[in-house]
Amino acid sequence: MKAAVVREFGAPLVIEERPDPEPGPGQVRIRVEASGLCHTDIHAAHGDWPVKPTPPFVPGHEGVGLVEALGDGVTHLSLGQRVAVPWLGKACGRCEHCLSGWETLCESQVNTGYGCDGAYAEKMLAWADFAQPVPREIAPLEAAPLTCAGVTTYKALKVADVRPSQLVAISGVGGLGHLAVQYAKIAGATVAAIDVTDEKLELATRLGADLVIDARTENVGEALKRHGGAHAALALAVDDTAFEAVNSGLRRGGKLVMVALPAHGTVRVPIFDTVLNGTSVIGSIVGTRQDLAEVFRLHAAGRTEVVHETRTLASVNDCIDEVLRGEVKARIVFDLDTGR
Ligand code: NAD
Ligand code: ZN
Ligand code: ZN
Fold first, then answer.
1. How many CB atoms lie within 10 A of CB 107?
2. Atom of ligand 1 nearest to the CA of 323
3. Structural domain count, the chain
4. Is residue 153 in a domain?
5. Is 154 part of any domain?
6. Are 127 and 59 in the same domain?
7. Does the pTM exceed 0.90?
8. What's the pLDDT tens digit per position in 262-284?
9. Does the pLDDT at position 338 exceed 80?
10. Is residue 167 a contact partner of residue 190, using CB atoms and an 8 Å limit?
11. Which neighbouring-strand residues pair with 57?
């Protein structure tokens, strides 16, 4: 099978021929049909974060495909079943976090495409308990972006406890943001979308944003304040200054939800304003299996649109450059069914 491998941080990925992986106890092998390119995969390939993966590794945590081999003890998945493999590859199931519905905070978790090989491959392994069944109504190329971009933003809005009548700012309308706009609308909020390209701002409007703010030409904080300030702001742009800009546009009691993970990211939060205005800064990391099931249910019901461009895995390095140049409309998905 073919896989795109990070051999060295910052170097182009290498397409390699590898033997099919054998599932261990509790695992399944999946024939990957579709695999999304999350900006996190670029951070992984560049070694951007304090906790780094160990090359060589295969990135990718928006994998969708068909189960083709069952490891010992797997009884609830069947051969030929379509599943999605998210960032949360495995958690312990026993700790305080796992038992309280916060498996995404488990300290023993293994992350797909980071702590184990991921979905930039024709075949991959997954722990059966964390492989999410994909409803029949959802095509693989659409299921892939929902598996990280979808669940992450859906969860971030839950964390912010967004209510109808609230103003929600979505900073960055990329892979994550284009779905965040839609979930915020479904939650009943008024949505302000912020980006730095005309195409992204037009996309946000088409997907339901009530107002758009061009961070190149407008002061984001002042623009949000003109509308009363945001009750919640999702920081999805890979840029420290975008976090500060949107934080300055919160209304009293508002919440900044940090989601993007720029390399060496540090944000200056003014103490006086935060205290006097009673604002909060919250981190939010992906979502649980239950959150992903809800995201799939919404899409199967026709409530969300996944905007994606389809590519071959062989073009992975060009695709990464396109994402970094901000040229991708929302999400690139590798089509491994036809793209071999
Ligand atoms: P993306 O590249 O598809 O989207 C980023 C968007 O931000 C683009 O539309 C870009 O034009 C826009 N942008 C750039 N500068 C901006 C600015 N100054 N103001 C407003 N918008 C600006 O990336 P993505 O795949 O959506 O991922 C975004 C970030 O979220 C990455 O850092 C990724 O690692 C992280 N992420 C975090 C989690 C989590 O669980 N916390 C999950 C998935 C991804
Ligand atoms: Zn745990
Ligand atoms: Zn991701």
1. 10
2. 2
3. 2
4. no
5. no
6. yes
7. yes
8. 999 999 999 999 999 999 999 99
9. no
10. yes
11. 6
Q: What is the C-alpha to C-alpha distance for residues 241 and 181, in angstroms, rounded to an integer? A: 21
Query: In this structure, are residues 231 and 200 in contact, taking their beta carbons and an 8 Å threshold?
Result: no
DSSP conformation class of 112: B
| Structural contact between residues 168 and 158, judged by C-beta atoms closer than 8 angstroms | no
What is the Å distance from ligand 1's center to 241 Cα?
13
**Owning domain of residue 43:** 2-148+287-335
For ligand 1, whether the C-beta of 200 sits within 6 Å is yes
- The answer on pLDDT for 339 being more than 60 is no
Residue 46 sits in the same domain as residue 174:
no
Are residues 269 and 176 located together in one domain of the fold?
A: yes
pLDDT band at 337 (very low <50, low <70, confident <90, very high): confident
Q: How far is the CA of 176 from the centre of ligand 3 (A)?
A: 8
Is residue 227 assigned to a domain? yes
Picking from 117, 28, 31, the residue whose alpha carbon sits closest to that of residue 71 is 28
Any atom of ligand 1 within 6 Å of the Cβ of 223: no
Ligand 1 atom closest to the CA of 43, numbered from 1: 34
174 lines ligand 1 (CB under 6 A): yes
Reading the block at residue 339, the tokens are: 């793209």
Phi, psi of 6 (to 5 degrees): -85, 110
Q: What separation in angstroms does the CA of 151 have from each of 94, 183, 268, 301, 339?
A: 23, 10, 28, 16, 26
How far, in Å, from the CA of 26 to the mean position of ligand 1? Answer: 33
- Tell me, yes or no, whether 271 and 292 share the same domain: no
